[in-house]
Amino acid sequence: MATVLGANQYGKAENRVVRIVRDTPRHEIRDLNVSTSLRGEFTAAHATGDQSQVLPTDTQKNTAFAYAKLHGISSIEDYALALGRRLLKATPAATAAQVRVEEYAWDRLGQHAFSRRGGDVRTCVVTVGRDEDGTHVLSGLQDLVLLKSTDSEFKGFLKDEFTTLAETDDRILATSLIAKWRHTRTDVDWNASYADARECLLSTFATSYSRALQETLHLMGSAVLGGQQELAEIRFSAPNKHHFLVDFNGFDADGLTNDGEVFIAADRPYGLIEAQVSRDDAPPPGDAWLHVPGFV
Amino acid sequence: MATVLGANQYGKAENRVVRIVRDTPRHEIRDLNVSTSLRGEFTAAHATGDQSQVLPTDTQKNTAFAYAKLHGISSIEDYALALGRRLLKATPAATAAQVRVEEYAWDRLGQHAFSRRGGDVRTCVVTVGRDEDGTHVLSGLQDLVLLKSTDSEFKGFLKDEFTTLAETDDRILATSLIAKWRHTRTDVDWNASYADARECLLSTFATSYSRALQETLHLMGSAVLGGQQELAEIRFSAPNKHHFLVDFNGFDADGLTNDGEVFIAADRPYGLIEAQVSRDDAPPPGDAWLHVPGFV
Amino acid sequence: MATVLGANQYGKAENRVVRIVRDTPRHEIRDLNVSTSLRGEFTAAHATGDQSQVLPTDTQKNTAFAYAKLHGISSIEDYALALGRRLLKATPAATAAQVRVEEYAWDRLGQHAFSRRGGDVRTCVVTVGRDEDGTHVLSGLQDLVLLKSTDSEFKGFLKDEFTTLAETDDRILATSLIAKWRHTRTDVDWNASYADARECLLSTFATSYSRALQETLHLMGSAVLGGQQELAEIRFSAPNKHHFLVDFNGFDADGLTNDGEVFIAADRPYGLIEAQVSRDDAPPPGDAWLHVPGFV
Amino acid sequence: MATVLGANQYGKAENRVVRIVRDTPRHEIRDLNVSTSLRGEFTAAHATGDQSQVLPTDTQKNTAFAYAKLHGISSIEDYALALGRRLLKATPAATAAQVRVEEYAWDRLGQHAFSRRGGDVRTCVVTVGRDEDGTHVLSGLQDLVLLKSTDSEFKGFLKDEFTTLAETDDRILATSLIAKWRHTRTDVDWNASYADARECLLSTFATSYSRALQETLHLMGSAVLGGQQELAEIRFSAPNKHHFLVDFNGFDADGLTNDGEVFIAADRPYGLIEAQVSRDDAPPPGDAWLHVPGFV
Hints:
The structure is a homotetramer of 296-residue chains. Chain A is α+β, with helices and mostly antiparallel strands. Helices cover 23% and strands 37% of the residues of chain A. The relative contact order of chain A is 0.12. The mean pLDDT of chain A is 97. β1 of chain C pairs antiparallel with β11 (262-265) of chain D, so a sheet runs across the interface.
C-alpha cells in the first residue's frame, strides 16, 4: 500500500481587520474577522517540505490588511472577492481561494465615537476559482437569537418506548440562527441584498405560526428566496434553545401558577435543526460550500 | 495550632430566569441570569456536615423562579431586593443575602416575537442584611464596547530601559467597559436611574478628548455622579482593547499609506485600567462590595 | 419558480452522559458528550408541520442515556453504533442516523474518586444507514496541543510584494490538533486502535524534523495509516499556534539576548493547515464525512 | 458636592510568556499567563491626563518578557516576586505592584517536543510593597475538576415552602476547584510547597466521606494548613457541578434501572460554595487579597 495526499488547504484565520474611513470629520468604521485559504497543487509542501509554491499565511494576512485600504470595504462580499482574486493571482499553484468574513456592527455615538452593537453578525464565504464558473458568493448571518413567546406548538410526533415528552399547544420557540444563502451572480448590490434577506427572516419568524422549528425555517427560507430571484438556495443551522416551563406544583405557595410565564433557559442539550431550501431551477453549487464549516 | 473557619458563603449561581408577561396579546419579556448567596453562621455545615441551618441551593433556585412570578420583575434591582429579603427570612442562620443579576435585552419584532439585542448587559448586586443599614444596591453594566477613532492621545509617559512604545497624538481608544455604581437609597426609580447613568457614560465618552483611558474613566464617573445626587460612588474595570496601526512600510506597493485607517484588533495582552470615583461626602460602603468579583 | 426542501437533519446535540460502573467497589467512569441526528424523508415536517414521522429530539436524548445502561460504553465507537442503530430502527422515515461523541478522560484518585485529566479529547462520528454499506466509523481526537521547541524551519517560500516574513531555520512549531480517521470495518478493537493511532501521532510529531506544518501532518498521517491496515484515510485540521520570538533589540539592557528562548504565544490570527492523507486503495467514503463540521 | 478619585490600579493583563530553556539538547518549557498591575498615587493621570508618573502598560509587558530571560522562571512565585520588585522600582509613584501568574503544564514527548497536559492550572498572586510587610504571596490552582462517585450524601437540610429537593444518601459530588493559600514567608521552596498542597487537596478529597461540599472543603483546607506550618490560610471557590440521576421511570423498557449509574452533567445553574480556612494564629493578610478576583 501507499498513501496519497488528498484534499488540502491552508491559510490565515481570524485576521481582525478594523478599517476607519476618515476622509471627513464624520468617521466610518468597518470591523471584520477575515479568514483566507488557498487550495490547489501543494503536494511538494506536504511530501518534501518544499515551500516554493506556498504563499505564506503571513503574506495572506498582510494582503487582507493592505486590501482594506487599497480596495476598501464597501461590503464584505465585494472586499472578499477582491481579496480572493488577489491571493489566487499571487499563487500560481492555487486553483481556488476562499475568503470568509464576519462583520461586527457598531452604532454611532458621535462624529468619531461608536459603541459595538452586539447581536447578530453578518457573514460571507467567497470562493474564487480560475474561471468565472468557479466563483461563488455565500452571504449570511449568525448569532441571530430569536424567540416567540406563543404561537408555537409541538405535538403529533412519533413515539417509542423512550418517549416521555408531553405534547404542547403553547411553548416558547427560540433559536440562535446561522443562515447562509447562495448568490448566482456577482454583480449584486450586496448591502441591499443583505438587508432584504435579514428583514425577510425576521418578519417571517415574527408573523408565522410554528408547528415545529422545521416548518418555521422552511417558511423563512422560502421567503428569502421569494424576495430575491437571483438567490439559488439557503441553508440553516438552528439550535432549538429550550425554555422549559418551571414546575411550581411542588411549591407550598397558594395560588402560584405558571401559565406560560416563568421559564428556565437551558444550555445543553439542545435540539439542532438543519435544513436547506432551494429554488427548483437553481444552478448546481459547484464548490460554493466546499469546506464551509457546519451544515452543508 | 488549630484551624478556624473564616468567611464563607454559598448559593446558586446562574439561574437563567425568563419571565413572559402575557396579560395582553402584547407580551413582555425579561431575561435574567440570577445568582444568589447566603452568608452567616454556617460553621456546623463546614465542621461536621450538619445541614440543619442550610437552605439548599436548590431551594434558592426555586425561590428565584417563584419570585419572578410572585413579585415580578419591574426592574432587576427591585426583584433582587425582594428575593434577597425572602432568602434571608427563610434562613435564620444567615446574616446577609446577596443577589446578583445580569439582564439581557431583547428588541421587539411583533406582539410576541423578539430578537436578542446583544451588546451591553445591565447588572445589579444587591446585598440584604438584617437591618436597613446592611442593605446595599449596586447597579451597573458590562460588555459595553466603546471606541473612539480619534481625539485620543498617549504621550508624556514615564520611561525606563524597557520602554519601546512610541508616543502618539492620535490613536484608537477602545474598551469593553464594566461599571458598577452604588446607591445610597432603596426608593429609587431603578429603570430611570439606569437609563440616565448609561446615557451619561456614552455621551461623556463620545464628547471628551482623551489623554489616557484613566482620564476618560474619571470624566465618565464624575458625569454619572453629577447627574444623580443619591449615588455615592462608581467603579470601573476597563480593558484597553488595543488596536495597533498596521505597518505598511515593508510592503512593496506604491502609495500604500496608513494614516490612522487600518488597524489590527488585538486579543492579548491588554491594558487593564481600574478606578473608583466617589462623592466626597459619600457614606461608607459597608459590605456593599463584599465578595463582588473583580475590581473593588 | 418554486422552492424545494433540500438536505436536512435534526437531532439532540451535546447530551452530557456520565456513566458510573459500580459493580465492584472500584468504580469506573465514562464521561461523554453525545450528539445525535437523523436524516431522511422529513418533508412533511418542514412543509406542513406534520410531526408524525419525527422522533422528537427529546426522545433521542432519552435513548442516549438509556443506552449508556442498556448497552454500556465499552468504547465510544461501540456505544455510538448501538445508539445509531436504535435511533434508525425507531424512525421509519429516517435513512441514516449520525452519532457524534466526545469523551473526557479522568484519572483515578481512589476506588471511587477521580480528577478530570484535561488535554486532548477522544472523538468519534458514526453514521448508520439502512444497509451495512451505509455504516461508517470515524475515530479521532481534538484539542491535542503539541509543541516542538526546535527542529522546525520555514523558508524557501513564495514571495510577493506583500511578503515581509523573514525566513527561519529555527522556530517553535505548535498546534492544537484535530484529527479524524476512517475505518473500513466495524469489527475493530476500538480502544486498542485508538491508543495505537494516538501514539503514532505523538511519536511522529516528536521525532520528525519539520520543514512546515504541512510536511509534519503528512508524516503523522502516513504513520497512522501505516500502523493499521484497515484504516482508509485520515484528515487533519491544525491551527499553527504562532509563538513569536520577542524582540529585545529595543531594550536598553546589556547582554539581553534572545536565542530562541522567550516567545509570546499569540491568539489571532493563526495559520490554519488542513489536509487529508489516504491509502491509495481506500474504498470511497460514501456519507462518512457528510455534515461533519470542519474540514472535510 | 465634589468627586474624588478612589482606589485605582492599572497594568497589562494576560501576557502569554513562553520560556524555552535550551542550554542542553534536553529543552525545558515554562508556559505562563502573566498579568501585572501598579497601585499608588496616580491622581494626575486621572484628573488631568498627565502621564509623567505612569509607566506604560506596554513597558510592563516588555518587562515581563525580559524578566523571563534576565531572572528566569524557577517557579512562578519567584518570577513574580522579581518582576513585581522591578516594576515597583521603575515607578516612583507606585506604592505596590501586583503580579498574577497562571502556569500551563506540558508533558515531555522527547528532547524538545511536548504536549500540553491540560487539567488544572497552577497560579500565584504576588503583591510587592515598599517594605517587606507589604509583600505577600498567594499560591494556588484552578480548574481542578474532582468527582466522587459515592461516599457523598446531602440530607438533613433546612426546608421551606419552596423546597422540593429530595434528601439523598448517595450522590455524585463534583467540583471545578479554585484554591489560593497565603504564605507567611518568602523564602519558601515554592515548587515543593505547591506539590505538597496539591497532593493534600487530592488525597483528602479522595479519602473523605462527604456530608456536603462545605465539609469536604473544610477538610481539604485543614489538611493543607496542617501540612505546612508557614501557611496562614486557604480560600476556596467551588462550584457544585451537579450530576443529576437520569429518571428511567417513564421509559417503557423492562428492567431498566438506574442505581447511581447514569447521570446527566448539568451546566447551569450550579451551586457555588466559597469558604476560607485559617490558622488561628495567622498574621493579618494586609493587602494580600486586595483586588484579587473572586471570593476573598
